[in-house]
Amino acid sequence: MSDVDVIEKFLRYVKVDTQSDDSTGSSPSTMKQHDLAGILYKELVAIGASDVYYDEKHCYVYASVPANNDNPDSPPIGFIAHMDTSDEVSGRDVNPRIVEKYDGSDIKLDSAGKIILSPDDFPELLNHKGEDLIVTDGMTLLGADDKAGVAEIMTMAQILTENPEIKHGEIKIAFTPDEEIGEGTAFFDLKRFGAKYAYTVDGGKLGELEYENFNAAEGTVEVKGRSVHPGDAKMRMINASLVCYEFHSLLPVFQNPMYTEGREGFFHLTQIDGRTDSATAYYIIRDHDEKLFEQKKEFFREAAEFLNKKYGEGTVTVTITEQYRNMIEKIRPHMHLVENAKKAMEDLGIEPIDRPIRGGTDGAALSYMGLPCPNLCTGGYNFHGKYEYASVQEMRSVVKLLLGIIGNYR
Ligand SMILES: [Zn+2]
Hints:
Layout: H1 6-13, H2 33-46, E1 50-55, E2 60-65, E3 77-82, E4 97-99, E5 107-108, E6 116-117, E7 133-135, H3 144-162, E8 171-176, H4 190-193, E9 197-201, E10 208-210, E11 215-224, H5 240-250, E12 266-274, E13 278-287, H6 290-311, E14 316-324, H7 328-331, H8 336-347, E15 353-354, H9 362-368, E16 375-376, E17 380-381, E18 389-391, H10 392-408
Parallel strand pairs: 3-8, 3-9, 9-16, 10-15
Antiparallel strand pairs: 1-2, 2-8, 4-7, 5-6, 7-18, 10-16, 11-13, 11-14, 12-13, 17-18
Bound molecules: zinc ion.
């Protein structure tokens, strides 16, 4: 096999600032995402990928590697990664550094030695003793989320185009913008992409395989109070802020993010704006289980009904807006996606980690658009912050994993 190196690509891609921004309202949300899209487009052309297409309006890049096997039944398999980085921490002037043969001690990120990546805070680090770790200089995020995925897919594609003796079915590739602001699939062209099944390469720890996520809705509670002079308030005032407080006290105490993990759902109070005459509380409602999810929404409505009985019709108005659904419903009929990924991991001696996502993923949206799409690991850690790091050895393993999955669909 040629010596194409995923790390060389990764170190180049993270230096391109592609931070998305949920306040611009445009698509892509930031023009600088085109800087990486343009690079990927050129590289795909250069390595001899086919159908290379750059949607310059919405900033998506598509390509394929045509089948070279003689099995007309092998399905077109896709791999997707997002180009943007989180808007929580700057992605400008990313200055990555490789800590060779990590020895388990504290890593001083900045030159003054004040920003420290320590196993005391991140015990997971100790699993990487002896590996080479790519870290930041403490000023920015690293951008392994998801440039690790981008680099791994690009490397896989180059290995396939340079080594025609590796037999495979049709391979489809897409790089998307704005995943971090929830818009990654807004203009995804499923038809152009052309895969029957796909994987997003956007997870963390080596071995992670995700095909279950939350069912998600937003709930808004609007309360109309009755404001009167507090001196004359007896039996007349309704304090809207206190009704909000009461609403919250009706919700099950332990169905709260602070007390839940695994497949346990919750109501999360995200914001509250309150005065005496009016108040609004904003919630997100989450559950992996469809039935329990429906029950939670019903409970939310019933809490409002109860308060309306107590304070008068129209005091409390609840609005529930659906956000996304658990992809498991769409994966279950195609469990080969999970089995082939697990088999590829086991062949490489990687232990599969089967874990429900406590959030959403672009793969969930794609699954409901008709493209069943679990999420694979990248070898990156501590996403969305300056303590983000990636393992050189794990990233190289992920490239082998992608090739292994392709082999299982041959
Ligand atoms: Zn991501």
